[in-house]
Specification:
The complex is a heterodimer of chains A (about 350) and B (about 180). Chain A contains 14 helices and 13 strands. With about 350 residues, chain A is an alpha/beta fold. Strand 7 (about 175) of chain A pairs antiparallel with strand 2 of chain B.
Chain lengths: ~350, ~180
């Protein structure tokens, strides 16, 4: 299955209540697959093409406020339009799943793979002090698995989860194991799981209000402290990173998403040439796997960050190791994707041949 | 076992679906598979290519710089990918419309007249199956039986009556390969 198709199926199988979105390459297959599978006839899931990304994200906000399991998917320019909604949802502490299959920017850019929305996703693309959990799939299987993980975490911490994929992972086909179909949550289950949600005042319970507006500065400050406490908790519990060949490595590649896969091949090629190269693949970009990177980098002579961007994640890598080692960047831009030998050449140029 | 393949040609020649059927066939043999298309504003008449990897082990990169097998179906693709065949690897090209044939002497080169064969079969739509048949004759990476299963999986049920025609094309393609 294609990554985008698999993600759509995973959303239905998780028992999603609604998808709202607006088509944009390279993730239009998400909406197309949902329309083709017609889940409204089986699970009762709503699939709606909104009039714009701004409308879609606010529909997600509304669904999430009701404790519903809702998602949207888009690509870079559409994700920019959704930033206001992201900030509002973060401030309202509602759980939602956002998918950004990144394409080359800035502006309307190209339709080919990119990772240049890293800062926007991880450092708060909307206004205010907030974070979303950012998951970076590098395989079609992870496009499936991170749907469930994303929603589980979103409901656990009452925050927005994001799947930050790139066009390669969205467009490629791989073998994939799909989860069993889960039923959608009943109204009773939602009331129990989300006592904060606006679900109608059954038995005249106290009113629930979902809003991001607070005119009292002191209350807003307290809200911010509460958000931050949640973020610290997420940092403590939910950091994920895959380490390959890092026990003995002299040089470390750090990459996420499809560049991590391409870097893995470059690592294999380097090992064939006799160089001890390892790979660290952050799975959560926020929270960034600071400890794992620091540990993996402990004995290395240098680190190469491979990104489909001019160097965004590299800042987090430098912070993680407190600039204690040389860190270099290699990337392709604008929708171009490097082949494994380009990464190997960069390793040679920046470290191995020096 | 690991086989890294690229198939390249014009949009409309069935390049992507040929890759898809090959990937599904690998799936039927319980292999790890990866299918990575060139995607974009390309359309019929433009260029298209797809990278397919079949492997017994976890596949690292879906994007490659050198291939075990390269199948090229027009001159542009031949010009672009001849140099990307690994030494000792296989290059298969359709002679139709080729004015500058491949020249490397460190690889195995096969010329197949697949476009001409479509005239014999009086069916241009099974062109890509003829090419796939030729590839599988040269590199028997999956069995014909599993290709047919893969074909069935990638076709919607309303097209299953076309399966015998596709099988004929696969066999025709196999018969085109001369040592």
């Amino acid at each position: 299955m294609k990554g985008n198709e698999a993600l759509a199926v995973a959303a239905i199988r998780y028992g999603a209540d609604a998808y709202f979105g607006y088509p944009i390459t390279p993730q239009s297959e998400v909406l197309e697959t949902l329309e083709a599978l017609k889940p409204w006839e089986t699970t009762g899931m709503v699939v709606l093409q909104a009039e714009s990304e701004v409308a879609a994200v606010n529909m997600v906000y509304a669904g999430a406020a009701c404790g519903k399991t809702v998602l949207t998917s888009t690509s870079s320019p559409g994700f920019s339009l959704m930033q206001e909604g992201m900030s509002y949802m973060a401030a309202s502490e509602v759980p939602a799943l956002m998918i950004n299959v990144m394409r080359g920017g800035p502006g309307l850019g190209t339709i080919h793979p990119s990772q240049a929305d890293y800062f926007q996703a991880c450092k708060g693309g909307g206004h205010g002090d907030y974070h979303a959990i950012v998951l970076a799939p590098s395989s079609v299987q992870e496009m499936v698995d991170f749907v469930a993980l994303g929603w589980d975490l979103a409901f656990k911490y009452r925050c927005v989860s994001m799947i930050l994929a790139d066009g390669v992972v969205g467009q490629m086909m791989e073998k994939v194991v799909l989860p069993e179909q889960r039923p959608r949550r009943t109204e009773e289950e939602i009331r129990k799981l989300c006592p904060w949600a606006v679900t109608g005042r059954k038995d005249m319970r106290p009113r629930n209000v979902i809003t991001s507006l607070e005119l009292d500065d002191d209350i807003m400050e307290a809200n911010n402290h509460r958000f931050q406490a949640t973020y610290r908790e997420i940092e403590k519990n939910e950091t994920r990173c895959e380490l390959i060949n890092t026990e003995d490595c002299d040089y470390l590649i750090v990459a996420f998403g499809s560049p991590a896969r391409i870097s893995m091949k470059a690592m294999e090629m380097a090992r064939e040439q006799g160089y001890k190269v390892g790979l660290a693949r952050p799975i959560t970009l926020w929270p960034f796997p600071v400890n794992q990177i620091r540990e993996a980098a402990k004995n290395v002579k240098g680190i190469l960050c491979v990104e489909l961007a001019t160097g965004q994640m590299i800042e987090d890598v430098k912070l993680a190791i407190e600039c204690s080692k040389p860190v270099e960047h290699f990337g392709r831009l604008g929708g171009n994707v490097p082949a494994p030998d380009e990464i190997l050449n960069a390793l040679h140029e920046k470290f191995l041949d020096k | 076992m690991k086989e890294e393949i690229i198939i390249a040609g014009f949009g409309g020649q069935g390049v992507l679906s040929m890759g898809k059927i090959l990937a599904y066939s690998g799936l039927m043999e319980d292999k790890e598979v990866s299918w990575m298309p060139s995607y974009g504003p390309e359309q019929r008449g433009g260029t298209a290519n797809v990278t397919v990897i079949l492997s017994d082990e976890r596949i690292s990169s879906p994007i490659l710089n050198a291939y075990d097998s390269v199948v090229v179906l027009n001159q542009q693709s031949l010009d672009r990918f001849e140099s990307k065949v690994k030494p000792g690897g296989v290059l298969i090209y359709d002679s139709y419309g080729i004015h500058n044939p491949p020249t490397r002497d460190d690889i195995r080169i096969y010329r197949i007249d697949a476009t001409e064969a479509t005239f014999d079969l009086k069916n241009s739509k099974t062109y890509n199956m003829i090419v796939l048949g030729a590839l599988l004759k040269i590199k028997p990476m999956v069995t014909l039986e599993n290709v047919l299963k893969g074909l069935k999986k990638s076709l919607p049920e309303r097209h299953w009556h076309l399966l015998p025609m596709n099988e004929e094309a696969l066999r025709k393609g196999m018969s085109l390969v001369k040592d």
